[in-house]
Design goal:
- The protein contains 13 helices and 2 strands, in the order ααααββααααααααα.
- It has a two-stranded antiparallel sheet with strand order 1-2.
- A hairpin with a 2-residue loop joins strand 1 and strand 2.
């Protein structure tokens, strides 16, 4: 933990740690004020559990800062995320093709299923939406959308360094298929924006290849299943009559009418789903209701800070690679992939209460930690490149 606040490192992340502390303060203040005001027993228990889970999630940031200190370790962490997501995508594609939920049947030795979170028979536009190992098709779409930029980044780094890249290219295709079979309109939009963030420094040839590949994979998916094509045509073409949009509108109206009851610190962290209130499907509105204006402001600040650190890391790596041929290559590509994934998260939070789903919540905190780690590594890389550039030649 001392390294992450800069006490033993030349690349300090003190500002990031301050932002993280403000986020934690928002949650703690919400908890304290709601307990002082009084909560019904079931809401008190939910608030206790949620605050504990969130404080444990914060430790992911410090763990990553203590353990991940090199570009290679960042790449291994990203690869682990991509492999885990690919397994879920594989289950989702199997479920979509066969109608059998294999993920639900998978139980680790020594464990037994109890009160599973998986939902059943979610049909949209006549198509049964797959959920893989996620708790809901929307979570599957969010996970796939978040991991696709990371898989693309790893693929290009492997290709440009002359390493084996085809396996990683297959994960891109598999994750894309998982996103499609989730039949999530919002996830597709978020992915498009995320890829724009990632591609702005790409050579024209790479952009054309990536675009052509994406179009080809999408065409294959839709041609092989006409119902899928019709489903996406329906959800994009008839959004005015979409019940999910109507449900979110009701939630927005409820928030507009009731958040003023507890404007600054909210009604209590973790209490919204317990108190029989309308579905929001929006992380920002949920945080506003539970932790107030202070809480939602610190959430936005945290995500924007993580995105900013990742973008600065990408720039630092690019400069270092231009100034010296001896620094590790590919850091900028991975940092941009992290930034793209964080961009997807910022958008997905507007259509999904991400804190209510374990997989996407874990991924978010890992990405936040990786953005800080990538920034620290990029500063070291840039310093190394400039030091070598100023070395006087020996005679």
């Amino acid at each position: 933990m001392t390294r992450i606040v800069g006490q033993r490192s030349g690349a300090s992340t003190k500002f990031f740690s301050i932002v993280l502390a403000l986020f934690a303060l928002g949650s703690v203040m919400s908890y304290a004020t709601s307990m002082w005001g009084g909560l019904i027993p079931i809401a008190r228990i939910a608030s206790d559990e949620y605050l504990l889970a969130q404080m444990l999630a914060l430790l992911i940031f410090f763990f990553i800062g203590a353990v991940i200190r090199t570009q290679k370790s960042i790449e291994w962490a990203v690869k682990g995320l991509v492999i885990g997501g690919s397994i879920s995508a594989f289950f989702a594609v199997l479920e979509f093709a066969t109608g059998v939920d294999f993920a639900e049947k998978l139980t680790l030795p020594g464990l037994k299923a109890a009160s599973p979170d998986l939902v059943d028979d979610l049909v949209r536009e006549g198509v049964r939406r797959a959920q893989g190992s996620a708790g809901h098709p929307l979570e599957l779409g969010a996970v796939m959308t978040t991991l696709i930029p990371l898989a693309i980044g790893i693929t290009f780094v492997a290709f440009e360094s002359g390493r084996k890249w085809r396996l990683w290219a297959c994960t891109v295709a598999l994750l894309s298929a998982g996103a499609i079979v989730s039949v999530s309109r919002s996830s597709i939009i978020a992915l498009g924006v995320a890829l724009l963030i990632m591609a702005w420094r790409w050579p024209v040839k790479r952009v054309l290849i990536a675009t052509g590949t994406a179009v080809a994979l999408t065409a294959i998916a839709f041609i092989s299943n006409a119902k899928l094509l019709n489903a996406f045509a329906g959800i994009f073409g008839s959004s005015a009559n979409d019940p999910s949009i109507a449900s979110r509108a009701r939630g927005q109206q409820y928030v507009a009418e009731h958040y003023g009851n507890h404007p600054w610190f909210g009604q209590g962290i973790g209490t919204y789903p317990i108190l029989n209130q309308p579905y929001l499907d929006n992380e920002y509105l949920g945080r506003l209701m539970e932790t107030g204006i202070f809480g939602v402001a610190t959430l936005i600040l945290l995500l924007v800070t993580a995105l900013g650190y990742a973008l600065v890391a990408a720039r630092n790596h690019d400069i270092a690679e231009m100034e010296s041929t001896s620094v590790a290559r590919g850091g900028g590509e991975i940092a941009r992939a992290i930034a793209a994934s964080l961009t997807a998260i910022i958008i997905i939070n507007t259509i999904l209460d991400t804190s209510g789903f374990a997989q996407i919540t874990g991924i978010i905190w890992i990405l936040i930690g990786l953005s800080a780690a990538s920034w620290s590594v990029s500063k070291q890389s840039l310093r190394s490149a400039r030091d070598k550039g100023t070395e006087a030649p020996s005679h």
